[in-house]
Recover the amino acids of this structure.
């Protein structure tokens, strides 16, 4: 019996390679570029919004007789000064080796979170890359990381260079009145190890069933410092006014980005989780997150990311939420070694579930404008984060 044809938006060339979508030439399974025309076969993708989307102020656009006001690069209506919808309220990305979802949550009118994902082949095996930041920082960083790994650069050095690239890209958008700011976390998941780089309080976790689940990052926050000094327990620190006062970030108001970089060697199979505080606010413990995500994340990271998102929304959805899952070890789905997806960016504008009361003590909703005091960032609605 003949196997049914695959109808998944991919260009297939048997089981050994792919067909270039630009020139139609055949490329090898491990090729990053088409040798005939130079087309990038596996470019990075990001949650930048649907193709052709044009931001429009929901207030000024009510006057049909008036021309719509221009929207600044920072996302503000230049006529009335309001933040406008971003076009990325809910975005899902699935590159088979890894998958993610970003959502604006239930309380904010706009999603300032963003993610960027990429995969590539190296002589040692496949590599997956994920960045959670704002959209400008994430896009700049993932491109730098992908280029560096393809060249065979050291992952630690590549991670630091990517942070600086993201910082410079965000600084270009800055102005005296509006300085884009964001936290940052990236992972490079290779055949043997995971390289993590971060500033701020976006996190990376190791989730596993055969070994202990653990957090791979330490927050750059006053709460983390109070716990480290023994002045508060973690529960007390997270309930304090200093819970979300961060001490490092990226942005035009920072002279030099000083990231952390660490290497983690997984003890066996597991899943790397990268997320913004919109998720871990409701479950900061790695074991608790593993209970929600596993075992589905091993074979279907996209569905597991949806389950984590639903958990955060049901718990209150007070903030933007971004979740990326990378199963380890990296294994290409059979039977194809490489697939090119024409619709690699998949947008889903689903109706959000009605929120239910948060577990335990209700969390305070953040408000007010961000203010810099003594080298710390107090975050409010204008804050961009990863």
């Amino acid at each position: 019996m003949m196997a049914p044809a695959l109808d998944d938006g991919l260009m297939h060339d048997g089981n050994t390679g792919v067909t270039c979508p630009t020139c139609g030439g055949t490329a090898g399974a491990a090729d990053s570029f088409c040798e005939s025309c130079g087309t990038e076969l596996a470019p990075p993708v990001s949650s930048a919004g649907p193709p052709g989307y044009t931001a429009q102020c929901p207030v000024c656009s009510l006057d049909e007789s008036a021309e719509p006001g221009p929207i600044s690069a920072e996302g503000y209506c230049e006529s009335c000064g309001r933040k406008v919808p971003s076009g990325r309220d809910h975005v899902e990305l699935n590159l088979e080796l890894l998958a993610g979802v970003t959502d604006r949550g239930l309380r904010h009118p706009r999603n300032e979170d963003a993610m960027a994902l990429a995969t590539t082949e190296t002589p040692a095996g496949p590599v997956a890359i994920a960045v959670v930041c704002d959209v400008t920082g994430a896009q700049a960083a993932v491109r730098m990381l992908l280029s560096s790994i393809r060249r065979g650069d050291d992952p630690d050095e590549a991670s630091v260079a990517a942070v600086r690239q993201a910082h410079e890209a965000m600084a270009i958008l800055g102005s005296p009145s509006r300085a884009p700011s964001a936290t940052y976390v990236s992972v490079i998941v290779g055949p043997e190890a995971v390289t993590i780089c971060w500033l701020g309080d976006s996190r990376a976790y190791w989730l596993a069933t055969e070994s202990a689940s653990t957090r791979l990052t330490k927050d750059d926050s006053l709460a983390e410092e109070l716990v480290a000094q023994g002045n508060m327990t973690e529960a007390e620190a997270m309930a304090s006014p200093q819970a979300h006062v961060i001490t490092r970030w990226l942005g035009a108001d920072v002279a030099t980005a000083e990231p952390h970089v660490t290497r983690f060697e997984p003890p066996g199979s597991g899943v790397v989780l990268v997320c913004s505080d919109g998720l871990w606010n409701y479950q900061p413990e790695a074991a608790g997150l593993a209970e929600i995500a596993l075992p589905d994340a091993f074979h279907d990271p996209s569905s597991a990311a949806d389950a984590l998102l639903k958990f955060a929304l049901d718990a209150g959805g007070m903030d933007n939420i971004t979740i990326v899952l990378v199963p380890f070890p990296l294994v290409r789905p059979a039977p194809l070694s490489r697939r090119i997806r024409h619709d690699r960016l998949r947008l889903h504008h689903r109706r959000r579930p009605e929120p239910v009361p948060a577990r335990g003590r209700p969390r305070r909703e953040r408000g007010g404008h961000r203010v810099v005091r003594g080298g710390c960032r107090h975050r409010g609605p204008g804050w961009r984060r990863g």
In short: The longest helix spans residues 155-173.
